[in-house]
TrEMBL record:
<dbReference type="GO" id="GO:0005886">
    <property type="term" value="C:plasma membrane"/>
</dbReference>
<comment type="similarity">
    <text>Belongs to the RLP family.</text>
</comment>
<dbReference type="InterPro" id="IPR055414">
    <property type="entry name" value="LRR_R13L4/SHOC2-like"/>
</dbReference>
<dbReference type="Pfam" id="PF23598">
    <property type="entry name" value="LRR_14"/>
</dbReference>
<dbReference type="InterPro" id="IPR032675">
    <property type="entry name" value="LRR_dom_sf"/>
</dbReference>
<keyword id="KW-0732">Signal</keyword>
<dbReference type="InterPro" id="IPR051502">
    <property type="entry name" value="RLP_Defense_Trigger"/>
</dbReference>
<protein>
    <recommendedName>
        <fullName>Disease resistance R13L4/SHOC-2-like LRR domain-containing protein</fullName>
    </recommendedName>
</protein>
<keyword id="KW-0472">Membrane</keyword>
<keyword id="KW-1003">Cell membrane</keyword>
<feature type="domain" description="Disease resistance R13L4/SHOC-2-like LRR">
    <location>
        <begin position="156"/>
        <end position="399"/>
    </location>
</feature>
<keyword id="KW-0433">Leucine-rich repeat</keyword>
<keyword id="KW-0677">Repeat</keyword>
<dbReference type="GO" id="GO:0051707">
    <property type="term" value="P:response to other organism"/>
</dbReference>
Length: 465
């Protein structure tokens, strides 16, 4: 009997006091178990009693949001997701914090917090983040407005980090230069914070980076020329900042880039020809920048994969080139609020996937030569209003079904009548008022003289007879 109890005890507690699953699974080191309990309590509150609720956090009583793996025969926590990711996820307390025990989870690979830190504000740089330097691969904080202060410089020590996502938090300050030392980084998303200052040259050395999103901050200065070294990059979003200067010609090296969004900045200097060499582009969004220049210096036909082209409010001038109609995958074309002139090429009808076309607020002129089927297909997604000299054929469709804000062409045939120097004419268009009437009046005078002469002769004869 005693032998049986001893065997059961070994199955439950292990030889050294670690918990071992009833199915003979790996045990969990006691210090690791205490660390995960304490860490989660720091986030969700002391009322959470993990040891009672989850006596086997990596086994038969797993904690929602916690994943584990075996190292050297023992369970260790590798993934920790805190916040309202799912309905039964662990929700954070109002005073959530990082406890010292949290930084003892030495095998942690993935860490994510969603809507966890709201108030009171907690400084992000508090804590020993370097403790994760040899393990952490993914670090994510989303919608934590109470998470304030700058990005900890110790993040630059996370040499295994592949994904750094800090979206819509209360973070501020400049971007640490040593983030550029994370050479294995594949995703860098720092959008929706209050970051200021310039983007360091080191960020152009992240040769394995696939996604860079620094949008919706207050970053300023010029784009580093080193960005030409981001040859693996697929998506680059720097929109809604205060970046300025020319778009570097070195961007031509980004042959794999599918998304380039630089909208809502202060870029100038016109469209760089290097754009036409970015042959993988699917979305090019440069709207609301004082770029200036024109569209004619770009060989748009080279961008056969482009689906979205938004150049609205960029102070463009000149005509719209027909080469745009050769981008057969184009779905959205935004050229509104510019100074574009000339006619709108009817070849745009030939774009099979085009579903939105906006050219409003320009100086386009002439008659729109699109088919009625084109207007039916586009509906209000064709915007050409505020082009005072642009019109659509009056007989093509009822005016009530015409393009919104575009007037019908009026073919008014005026009489060819001229008044003086104004060119107003009557009768033969080669005769004006100065030549026509005297000739007629002269003929009238000659006939009148003849009549008078005949009448005088006739009356004389009568008298003498």
């Amino acid at each position: 009997m005693m032998l049986s109890l001893s065997l059961i005890g070994m199955c439950i507690n292990g030889e050294d006091g670690e918990y071992e699953g009833v199915d003979g699974g790996a045990p969990m080191v006691e210090t690791e178990q205490e660390a995960v309990y304490s860490a989660i309590q720091g986030f969700v509150g002391t009322g959470w009693n993990g040891s009672d609720l989850y006596p086997d956090p990596c086994g038969w009583t797993p904690i929602q949001g916690v994943s584990c793996d075996v190292f050297d025969g023992f369970w260790y926590v590798t993934d920790l997701n805190i916040g309202s990711f799912q309905e039964n996820s662990l929700s954070c307390a109002s005073n959530a914090k990082f406890t010292p025990q949290f930084f003892k989870l030495k095998h942690l690979k993935s860490l994510a917090f969603f809507n966890c830190f709201s108030k009171p504000p907690i400084a992000f740089d508090s804590g020993n983040w370097s403790a994760f330097s040899s393990s952490l691969e993914s670090l994510e904080f989303r919608s934590n407005l109470g998470l304030t202060g700058p990005i900890p410089t110790t993040f630059g020590h996370l040499k295994k980090l592949q994904s750094l996502v800090l979206i819509e938090n209360g973070l501020s300050g400049g971007l640490p230069d040593n983030i550029g030392n994370l050479r294995h980084l594949k995703r860098l998303v720092l959008s929706g914070n209050r970051f200021v200052g310039k983007i360091g040259d080191n960020y152009g050395y992240l040769s394995e980076l696939l996604i860079m999103d620094l949008s919706r901050n207050s970053l300023s200065g010029r784009l580093p020329l080193t960005f030409g070294g981001l040859t693996s990059l697929l998506k680059l979003d720097l929109s809604q900042n205060q970046l300025e200067g020319n778009i570097p010609s070195e961007m031509r090296n980004l042959k794999n880039l599918t998304l380039l969004d630089l909208s809502n900045n202060k870029f100038s200097g016109g469209l760089t020809k290097s754009i036409q060499e970015m042959s993988s582009l699917q979305e090019l969004v440069l709207s609301r920048n004082p770029l200036g220049g024109d569209l004619m210096n770009i060989e748009w036909q080279n961008l056969q994969g482009l689906m979205v082209l938004d150049l609205s409010s960029t102070r463009l001038s000149g005509e719209i080139p027909e080469s745009i109609s050769q981008m057969k995958r184009l779905r959205f074309l935004g050229l509104g609020h510019n100074n574009l002139s000339g006619i709108l090429t009817p070849k745009l009808v030939e774009l099979p996937n085009l579903s939105s076309l906006y050219v409003y607020g320009n100086n386009l002129k002439g008659e729109l030569k699109f088919t009625q089927g084109f207007y039916n297909k586009m509906g209000r997604r064709f915007g050409a209003w505020n082009n005072s000299n642009l019109c659509f054929p009056n007989g093509l469709m009822p005016m009530s079904f015409g393009p919104f804000g575009v007037k019908a062409c009026q073919n008014i045939m005026l009489s060819e009548v001229s008044l003086g120097d104004s060119g107003f004419k009557l009768g033969n268009e080669d005769q004006n008022i100065d030549s026509h009437y005297p000739i007629s009046f002269g003929s009238f005078e000659s006939n009148f003289d003849r009549i008078c002469l005949i009448w005088c002769l006739f009356t004389t004869i009568i008298i003498f007879v």
